[in-house]
Design brief:
The chain has 271 residues and is of the alpha+beta class. It has three domains: 5-28 and 239-270; 63-148, wza like fold (2-Layer Sandwich); 152-233, Outer membrane lipoprotein wza domain like (Outer membrane lipoprotein wza fold like, Roll). Helix content is 27%, strand content 21%. The chain has five helices and ten strands.
């Protein structure tokens, strides 16, 4: 039996449309390499030299918790914005302003009966020493506790649970921060994350690669208070069918449709 070229082209067209849909769906898959952390590369964007972590330096608009303890509770009450002796301190974004000392634009905190104490540009231990030096002129026996209240990291973009998360330990690394946000989503770009970091003069933006094992020794490994981590989407992810709960059903229907048309065309060709 002879088959006309016109009929053959018609059948190919019928096959190509569902097949194209299926290819688009399958093309949305992410390879194992794109989803793997800490890979070993022959050429790395990092120097490979260990960069020791640095301590956070207080800056304007920070909020610090200050607790002064003395043998006389009445003296202690002069300095304490919040009395932590009655229970556990619970801090929220809204309550931080009410139960803390803000670092003013000139870098100082204003203590009652004492005056301004410069803390900006200092680590928490150094700020504690500066406050103790001033208090010595007024109190003989005391202990001071200083903590940073706005100790958070923001994780945005292509992560499973974006949000604002507390830095619960002194050294929180980038992978621990991402894990709090539910890890990078399937279509997040692990090769080019961005971090926004505040300094005493401006906010800086840097990009880094978490698929490279050498990140462990780099300046990006540990996050800092007030950091913003942004995970970019993979390039070309504009056909976002992967976000639909019906992606598997859609893929199955497309595959089934392709199979049916292939069977039909096979029968036509055999006639």
């Amino acid at each position: 039996m002879k088959i006309s070229l016109r009929s053959f082209r018609f059948n190919i067209k019928k096959i190509s449309q569902p097949a194209l849909i299926l290819l688009i769906v399958l093309g949305g898959c992410v390879s194992n390499k794109d989803a793997t952390y800490l890979q070993i590369y022959e050429e790395s964007q990092y120097s490979g030299e260990y960069v020791p972590p640095v301590d956070y330096l207080l800056q304007a608009n920070d909020n610090i918790y200050l607790q002064v303890s003395t043998p006389d509770p009445r003296v202690s009450a002069f300095f304490n914005v919040f009395d932590a002796t009655g229970g556990t301190m619970t801090v929220t974004e809204a309550s931080a302003q009410l139960m803390s000392y803000p670092v003013e634009l000139d870098g100082t905190v204003n203590l009652p009966y004492v005056g301004s104490v410069l803390v900006a540009g200092k680590t928490l231990p150094d700020a504690k020493l500066s406050i103790e030096e001033v208090l010595k002129e007024y109190v003989t026996e005391f202990t001071v506790t200083v903590k940073l209240l706005n100790n958070y990291v923001s994780v945005l973009g292509e992560v499973n649970t974006p949000g604002l998360y507390p830095i619960y330990k002194e050294r929180l690394n980038i992978f621990q921060a991402l894990s709090m946000a539910g890890d990078v989503a399937d279509f997040g770009d692990r090769y080019q994350l961005a971090i926004i970091r505040q300094t005493d003069t401006a906010s800086i933006v840097k990009e880094f690669d978490i698929s490279d094992r050498n990140i462990i020794d780099s300046e990006f490994y540990y996050v800092m208070p007030n950091d913003v981590i942004y995970v970019k989407p993979l390039k070309g992810r504009y056909f976002a069918i992967n976000t639909s709960p019906y992606v598997f059903a859609f893929s199955a229907i497309a595959a089934l449709g392709t199979l049916v048309l292939l069977i039909q065309n096979t029968r036509l060709l055999s006639q």
